[in-house]
Design brief:
Layout lengths: L2 H9 L3 E2 L2 H5 L14 E3 L4 H13 L4 E4 L16 E4 L6 E5 L4 E4 L5 H8 L4 E2 L12 H7 L6 H4 L6 E7 L5 E3 L13 H5 L8 E8 L1 E2 L3 E9 L2 H13 L6 E5 L1 H10 L10 E9 L1 H15 L5 E4 L3 H13 L12 E3 L12 H14 L4 E6 L4 E8 L4 H20 L18 H5 L2 H12 L13
Parallel strand pairs: 2-4, 3-4
Antiparallel strand pairs: 1-2, 5-6, 6-10, 7-11, 8-9, 8-10, 12-14, 12-15, 13-14, 13-17, 16-18, 17-18
């Protein structure tokens, strides 16, 4: 069968087979590479179904892709085949304020969705650092989250129903508009976080939340990251739950000051950013509680003075990972060993061990991230032309992953497993991985959907 001709019958000119165009789909933001044989840009569920059915009948791998902002190789076609570029399916199909939901196609960008919801006084809360670029479909595939999941949860907390194309082209719905249901297996939650290995999402009904009336930001500095971690544990154990709780170590602060010298940040120590939201009175009360709890441990502590100051700090925080080259233009941030998570009370121990690993392998590192939910980004950066640094980097990343597992944590809190972290799935899950493989086999008997991912 002439696959190119068959695909062209389905999508016409929305098919790429030239090497230069295929190359653009051979990677994401990770180190994982894989060249597709075809790139197809569907515009409807019916087209996706026909493409997947064709692939199933001819044993061709299919990898769905959104914006390509992933950090684990999840959208990289490591075994070739068809890449489904879902970015063209980007419509908001319904804004249903009465039922506190929206229905969207998977290619819509998160910030675009929130821009559309803002006039109604609502928002879609999960907010990854790539919210200006990442698609809702990608967020569902990875169960993405971000800075405010401490209070609001991750993507899976907002997915109510999915339209999914299965491996043989069958189209199903996994849920409904109901806010709760006790009928049958929860297929919506099964698909969410499955990284395109069980089906292709073509529509999503999402719960939304009211925008808070106001936000306050507490900025505290500490002698070291370990003490900062202790302050987080103390805050939570006193019953105060911020909407966001971020850590920026000394290296991160150096990067941010070079990125924007006007930023109002402490001049010493490792910094915690506590955001609280709600009404004016409830947010101020929570901020004052945090300041009272953390003051005995802090070198300095203050409340951000204006909304503009808060906005500037959060904008800079979102860019800290990419801005590391401002510190040393000869080095590049490499996304390995960088998304681990541990139970909150283990955060101080993880921070201590991360520093020891950095020193052991003589690799500079930034420690930053969502410390309020135990998720830390340990940013290692190297001279990519130096083979010795690559070797030390890989050994350090391996030790970081295994340390997180030993502390009862995970090798990925929000960026996903993909191909980059697949080797750690057995160490983290043990015999439960066989259950995952059985589910994969049941839904995708030929193994065509995003093969080579999740250790399946």
């Amino acid at each position: 069968m002439d696959i190119t001709a068959e695909l062209r019958k389905i999508v016409g000119l929305r098919l790429s087979v030239s090497p230069s165009e295929l190359y653009c789909y051979s990677s994401d933001a990770s180190q994982v590479k894989g060249m597709p044989d075809y790139v197809v840009r569907p515009k409807s569920t019916a087209e996706v179904s026909r493409i997947v059915r064709l692939a199933y009948e001819n044993n061709i791998p299919v990898t769905a892709r959104g914006a390509g902002t992933g950090l684990a190789g999840g959208a990289v076609p490591v075994r070739g085949g068809i890449v489904l570029d879902m970015s063209g399916m980007n419509r908001i199909l319904e804004i249903d304020i009465d039922n506190i939901q929206v229905m969207v196609e998977p290619g819509i960008i998160q910030d675009a969705l929130n821009d559309a919801l803002k006039p109604y006084g609502f928002f879609f809360p999960p907010n990854p650092g790539s919210s200006a670029m990442c698609t809702i479909g990608g967020m569902i595939a990875y169960n993405a989250s971000g800075m405010r999941c401490v209070k609001y949860g991750t993507t899976r907390n907002y997915v109510r129903d999915l339209e999914v194309v299965l491996a043989d082209g069958t189209i199903i719905h996994t849920g409904s508009k109901m806010l709760k249901s006790a009928a049958g297996y929860d297929l919506t939650q099964l698909i969410t976080g499955s990284e395109g290995t069980l089906g292709i999402v073509t529509k999503a009904s999402l719960k939304i939340a009211p925008l808070p009336k106001t936000r306050k930001l507490v900025i505290a500095s500490f002698e070291n990251a370990e003490i900062a971690g202790q302050a987080v544990v103390k805050t939570f154990s006193n019953g105060v739950i911020p909407s966001a709780c971020e850590i920026l170590d000394r290296v991160s602060l150096q990067v941010l000051r070079r990125y924007d010298p006007k930023l109002v940040l402490p001049s010493e120590g490792d910094v915690l950013l506590f955001e609280v939201d709600g009404t004016e009175s409830s947010a101020r009360e929570a901020a004052e509680q945090i300041m009272e709890i953390c003051s005995p441990l802090a070198l300095s502590i203050k409340l951000a003075e204006s909304e503009n100051e808060m906005a500037d700090i959060w904008a800079a925080r979102k860019l800290v990972g990419a801005a590391v080259s401002r510190l040393d233009p000869t080095k590049t941030r490499i996304y390995v060993g960088e998304d681990v998570g541990v139970p909150i009370k283990k955060v101080p121990e993880l921070l201590k061990k991360a520093q020891e690993i950095s020193e052991k392998f003589n690799l500079p590192a930034m420690k930053y991230g969502h410390i309020g939910d135990g998720n830390l980004h340990l940013a290692l950066f190297i001279d990519v032309l130096n083979r010795d640094e690559w070797d030390r980097l890989n050994k350090a990343a391996d030790l970081i992953h295994r340390t997180a597992i030993e502390l009862g944590g995970t090798v990925s809190s929000e960026h996903g497993v993909g191909a980059a972290r697949a080797e750690y799935m057995e160490a983290q899950w043990g015999s439960a991985l066989e259950v995952m493989r059985a589910i994969k086999k049941a839904l995708d008997p030929k193994g065509i959907l995003n093969p080579g991912k999740l250790g399946l």
